[in-house]
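Tokens for chain A. Residues wanted.
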């Protein structure tokens, strides 16, 4: 659920995040706890929520500590998990969880669009940055060919593509929550539905949004090659 900004020195690369650990701690383990251990003979409804959400919360917190600084997206993930847990423990109506699920990616999409009108477009944080691309080399090649203006328009279009992935996530989050969360909060049935929502969030929400982001990155790579005359291997940072 989280991405970590590592502090990179000239002699040290950031550790790659384990996909298996990510899936286990953010999806698989919380799903099993909520769907199988929410009965009174096990953890009970409230404790099951606390234990299930503790795994992604601790995982996200560990990423923040390892990065050495606060990463916006990691922090947002922790806030989202905390809100879900708080709403569930307070037994608020499920509609508030659905609104929360839609609001966070929706706000990210809006922030991506708004950032176009600032000096810090969000697309540069997500895709066009020194961890992925040799931005200094790209900037030099663009200046030599006089294509800076065309590239700024490319980044603007990429920003809208990124924003669309967030808006898609927002819509799918809301639909998934509204469809699955039907039982009264504080019941074992509600916990099972919350577990199913967690399990389905990856294939139903994350995969389509990730596909759009990958298409955006492919589009950006092609435009960089066309506007700079550089090959992909000349601009991509070796991992």
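Reply:
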């Amino acid at each position: 659920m989280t991405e970590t900004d590592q502090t990179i020195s000239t002699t040290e690369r950031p550790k790659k995040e384990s996909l298996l650990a990510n899936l286990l701690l953010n999806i698989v383990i919380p799903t099993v706890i909520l769907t199988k251990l929410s009965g009174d003979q096990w953890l009970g409804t409230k404790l099951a929520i606390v234990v299930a959400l503790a795994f992604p919360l601790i995982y996200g917190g560990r990423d923040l500590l390892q990065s050495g600084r606060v990463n916006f997206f990691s922090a947002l993930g922790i806030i989202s998990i905390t809100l879900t847990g708080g709403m569930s423990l307070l037994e608020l109506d499920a509609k508030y969880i659905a609104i929360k699920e839609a609001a966070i990616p929706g706000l990210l999409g809006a922030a991506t669009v708004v950032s176009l009108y600032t000096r810090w477009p969000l697309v540069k944080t997500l895709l066009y940055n020194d961890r992925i691309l040799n931005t200094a080399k790209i900037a030099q090649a663009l200046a030599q060919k006089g294509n800076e203006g065309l590239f700024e328009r490319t980044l603007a279009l990429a920003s809208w593509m990124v924003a669309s992935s967030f808006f898609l996530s927002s819509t799918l989050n809301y639909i998934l929550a509204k469809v699955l969360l039907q039982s009264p909060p504080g019941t074992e049935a509600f916990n099972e539905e919350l577990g199913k929502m967690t399990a389905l969030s990856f294939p139903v929400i994350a995969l389509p949004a990730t596909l759009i982001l990958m298409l955006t990155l492919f589009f950006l790579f092609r435009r960089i090659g066309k506007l700079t005359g550089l090959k992909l291997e000349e601009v991509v940072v070796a991992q």
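Residues 188-228 form the longest helix (41 residues). The chain has a mean pLDDT of 82.
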